[in-house]
Design brief:
With 61 residues, this protein is mostly helical. It has 2 helices and no strands. The mean pLDDT is 87.
Length: 61
């Protein structure tokens, strides 16, 4: 692999990450930074529900 291809690949990767970061930062709604304790509890409850559903599906097979 030539040095030019390697530099191009690294620059493309860095640019993609930078653009994705900027787009996410620009489109973020106010107050969306850190999750509230209530949303964390709800997310954990949903996760437990999905695990239970997955377990029941496996038991039914």
């Amino acid at each position: 692999m030539s040095m030019n291809r390697l530099v191009h690949m690294l620059l493309r990767m860095l640019m993609r990450r930078g653009v994705n970061w900027g787009v996410r930062r620009a489109t973020r709604k106010p107050g969306q930074g850190s999750p509230t304790p209530q949303s964390r509890v709800e997310r954990e409850a949903v996760k437990r529900g999905r695990q239970a559903a997955r377990l029941l599906r496996r038991m039914g097979r």
